[in-house]
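Give me the 3D structure for Maltose/maltodextrin import ATP-binding protein MalK.
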Amino acid sequence: MGSITLKQVVKRFDETVVIPPLDLTIEDGEFVVFVGPSGCGKSTLLRLIAGLEDVTEGVIEIDGVNATDLPPAKRGLAMVFQSYALYPHMSVRKNIAFPLKMAGMDQAAIDAKVNYAASTLNLADYIDRRPGQLSGGQRQRVAIGRAIVREPSAFLFDEPLSNLDAALRGNMRLEITELHQTLATTMVYVTHDQVEAMTMADKIVVLRAGYIEQVGSPLDLYREPANVFVAGFIGSPA
Ligand code: ADP
Ligand code: MG
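Predicted structure for Maltose/maltodextrin import ATP-binding protein MalK (238 residues):
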């Protein structure tokens, strides 16, 4: 579970084409990074997959099922936002439990899932604090915890580390990569940061003005960039 296929997906805002016809396959369990300069359509593409924007044309399949017209809650995906979107008046425990409560799950099952997420993310010591009493990195982990308990078939991250300072960003890069290894769940990760792309991805999708310039492993892109744009962006000597 966790494959995502885009077939001839187009997104227009009024007359402006942001995503031209685009085909892309994300395999189950892959860590895929969308990278490209600001304004190239990374967030739009992620929001189309999440169902937070409607496609103008084309088809999105999730686990082989046509999900194009499914609302976000029915897609089995979890989006992690850069702004954390935590509830300031609730404890970490309650923030993580929130989606399960909304889904009507019984308390014992909620407790088990929250405890699992908290231990996986090293949040056990902070479980009764409120977001205001946490560091930026801890808040980001709570936001990830809230995604984990839903057991999504894929996680969608939109620049999750861009609010953190450089040292913390390095730590969180490692933590998210480790989380991917632990959970073995598909992750789609948007960033404008080449270092994040090169260090985290199984597969990098380089975007420029909505077009895919190249898809490949970090090594592929480094060794054989498709063009000068990719070479320049990835920092390849070619
Ligand atoms: P990125 O995440 O790569 O910085 P975005 O996906 O946010 O890029 O934006 C891609 C392009 O689409 C930009 O030119 C942006 O102005 C435009 N865009 C994004 N959302 C909207 C919207 N709701 N209405 C009109 N234009 C939009
Ligand atoms: Mg963006």
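The helical segments are 42-50, 92-102, 107-120, 136-148, 166-183, 194-200, 218-223, 228-234. Let me know if you want a second pass.
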